[in-house]
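Weekly puzzle thread! Below is a chain. First person to post its structure in token form gets bragging rights.
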Amino acid sequence: MQIKDVMTRNVEIARRDTLLSDAAEMMRGHDIGILPICDGDTLVGLVTDRDIIVRATANKLHPELVRCQDVMTADVVFCFEDQDIEEAGSMMQDHKVRRLPVVNRQRRLVGIISIGDIAVATGDTKLVGVTVQEVSAPDAPKPLPGQKRE
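Winning reply:
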């Protein structure tokens, strides 16, 4: 089964210059926690509800003065619509994310896929279970400067 068969289409997006207060309002209004940031239909970043809290609010940045581009993740992990669902699960595990933007081969945003989409569409409890476990597992502690990894 391919990602395009289970992904959510008609994804809400924001632009780089969208105010964080407007992005938060969009998230609340659509009951979502992630907004792809696009130039036209080209994916250029992501803003999550956590980004707004950790990168803006915790740094005392006012959401009516800060734009999405100021707190977005620009190095976005994404998948292609014609990849297999198992590949999306592996990518989620590797990058510890619960959702992936989906692009076509021209790299235009066409949807988003979540662990929940995979669970509902496939019923593959092993894939879903392993993905949730890997995404939720804490990262290994990073060595201090001058220390070697064991």
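Puzzle host: Confirmed. Bonus trivia for everyone else. The first strand starts at residue 34 and ends at 39.
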